[in-house]
């Protein structure tokens, strides 16, 4: 079990119903402590002053092909990398691990780096889709907090560069839902039918139904999946919108009053709408950790190592706190933000949504690789969503 080494809020007893306390998002031409641009300075379209690579990696490639989650990389980092290295970044995005895996397994796309989550990582390694990392080419890997390494699914630590971590739990608008939900079972409340937004995540949505019935969310028994099919179908019918691109949008607009989302989506929704609340269900939330894998036969491996090192710099990765506030595994980024962006740092540290309380993490569930049993999950999901 991963343990968090960050400063944590006070002990949370019993049900954790959390109000988000983050400060306003920092935007614009801010590069804390960078000073005024010099004649040789490179500036992103937002006005962000680009840090120089530290260290600079020798690269001969002129482009880099990324396959990454939607809304998960600050545009400033992309633009700065292109300018400081003279490398064109080609970025394709996916909305689910299953979508990513299926496209890679089918071939035909010459990607260098992909960004899977823990349970798909194991399958990618097992099936020869990822190559071992050369750690001598990753000096900035030292910025990763050891609490986040190795990433689940890569127990050897040979294949994955940690990216971000977080939780998936219940979000609701307290102005529209006066009685806070306490359990996964509360999502079956008939009053919520047609009012819910969910991330489109097969394994964890099936996991909700399994947990609600006291079963293992990583079961490999077909009988377990068959047993929950009626309840899962009922839940899916009650969901108004499945959206893994920007589920916060429906909450902010009032098109949904309750749902199941990633923690950063709840945080960003709160920044726009102060009535948003986040609940760790009494049965435990779902935990995730993402990372970069260098794909087998990556055509621009040298550019991939340059990208990884540049992204891992504290003076670039702190932008995640600003744009995509999940749980931060990069100690250098936190140190940089603490010194140069104290409001942003304090908002992160004091928010139990972004900086997950240890008791909530300890009670959580990691979605694991189920091997050949994945076919039974695929079949159940297809039948339920299609029916």
CATH class of the largest domain: Alpha Beta
The total beta strand count reads: 11
Q: State Rg.
A: 21 Å
- Could you tell me the CATH topology label of the largest domain: D-Maltodextrin-Binding Protein, domain 2
Count of the separate structural domains: 2
Termini Cα gap: 37 Å
Describe, in plain words, how this protein is organized in 3D.
This protein is α/β, with parallel strands linked by helices and 387 residues long. The chain has two domains: 35-164 and 289-356, D-Maltodextrin-Binding Protein, domain 2, CATH 3.40.190.10; 166-287 and 363-386, 3-Layer(aba) Sandwich (D-Maltodextrin-Binding Protein, domain 2). It has helices at 75-85, 97-106, 118-126, 202-212, 222-238, 248-253, 263-272, 301-312, 314-317, 319-323, 331-340, 342-350, 358-362, 374-386; strands spanning 16-19, 63-69, 88-94, 113-114, 160-173, 196-198, 239-242, 258-262, 276-280, 286-294, 365-366. Strands 1, 2, 3, 4, 5, 6, 7, 8, 9, 10 and 11 form an eleven-stranded mixed sheet that branches. Helix 1 (75-85) links the parallel strand 2 and strand 3 (88-94). Helix 4 crosses helix 5 (222-238). The radius of gyration is 21 Å and the shape is globular. 46% of the residues are buried. Residues 1-39 have low confidence and may be disordered.
Give a short synopsis of this structure.
Helix content is 34%, strand content 16%.
Keywords:
11 strands, 2 domains, disordered N terminus, alpha/beta, D-Maltodextrin-Binding Protein, domain 2, 387 residues, 16% strand, eleven-stranded mixed beta sheet
